[in-house]
Amino acid sequence: MKRIVYLIIFLIVAIAGLSFALMNAQQVTLTYYFGTIEAPLSLVVVVSIAVGALLGVLASMSMTLSLKHEISRLRKTLRNKEKELGNLRALPLKDQH
User: Fold this and answer.
1) What is the pLDDT of residue 97?
2) End-to-end CA distance of the chain
């Protein structure tokens, strides 16, 4: 059942992408620092979105990695504290009477 839903979603996205490409097939001139290039408008838009998504993922990687490092540090601290608590609970109590 899950595969059928994924297949339907894939087909909808593929049809939407194909119709987008067909409706935006005119050539545009893209001028950048090293020259110019002519490409279909749909290709320019898709490449721009892909590059933006890639830059967004790369920008968030540093925060994600630092949070993962903090989680591992906190887990290690928690293990040490639980071990210490277990050792303290195992100590016999001394009466002062």
Assistant:
1) 62
2) 72
